[in-house]
From TrEMBL:
This is Uncharacterized protein. Residues 338-347 have a biased composition (Basic residues). Residues 205-347 are annotated as: Disordered. Residues 245-284 have a biased composition (Basic and acidic residues). The lineage of its organism: Eukaryota, Fungi, Dikarya, Ascomycota, Pezizomycotina.
Amino acid sequence: MASTAADSITLDVFQDILQKYPDLVKSIAKPPKAGHLSLEELDRFRYIDAPSHLSIKTDAKQFALSDIQKLVQWKIHHGKFRPFLPKLVASNTEDKAREVTKAAFSSYATKRDIKATLKIIEKLKGIGPATSSLILAVHDPENVMFFSDEAYHWLCASGSESLPDLKYTSKEYDELDVKVKKLMARLKVSPTDVEKVSYVLKHTNGYSSAKGPPGKLKSGSLPQDNSKDANATIPRPRGLPRSAAKAEVEEATEKTLEDNLVKPRDRPKSVSEEEKKDDVKEPVEESSVSKPRGRANATQKARTSKVEAESAKPSVLNRKSKRKTTNNATDVEEPVRKRGHPKGKTG
């Protein structure tokens, strides 16, 4: 298996990976929104159209603001999405964009100092080391490397599974620049080709494993993009508060969490089958008398006994009716005794 490590990759393997780049872009491109360019159109501008009329070979002296905005659109759709970046860049005026890029390219033409040139370009709002390196890479595609996450991952982190958190500093770009020039000198390739190869390796997981044998790119269908890191830090342009850089991403995340959150007092209580059975009340017999509790027990018993006793006694009306009935029966069955005669005898 051929190694894909930057220190040992061969030119044949490098070229084989490079040929996979166009198909990869097509496979990960999403339909653009109305009025926006597709990733393939932005990719063509980045690698073909922009260098053909904005490079040092065409004696370009400056960039228009629209050129910078297109490159920023390519950057956020080709790599990590930065929703706040286009607005910051758009806040620059046309005169400011032309003035800064003209001063930067003039300095680069005389000194060929990449680091000093990037510092000049970074005077624009929303432009940091990564975007400034992209602008200069378009101006001099044969000597300047774009500071991409994929390139740093491959060349400086050896394609390890855990990519160190990039701060997008000049020191990190200097480290990348040294690695790129070493690879360019060994394979005789351009920075643009190195950029594309690192992009393919990152999005196809084609790195050589640091813990095992070298990896190998499989031919055929390209795997899905798995380069997104949920734990990656969100970089911010110079001068922008960290809270502003994270605002749009955190706002959507917090809203989703808030919508899905069920507060304890609103959460429905789970009722088991046994509890459901307990909730069914058994019918109470009519004759049953609930027993009182506590100190009122004796009093209630006395009242109950009194009520029962009263119920058992016949009423006055009932007693009179009974007496009358008895008397009627006596008048019929026994003759009336005369006064003075003993009982049982008649006169």
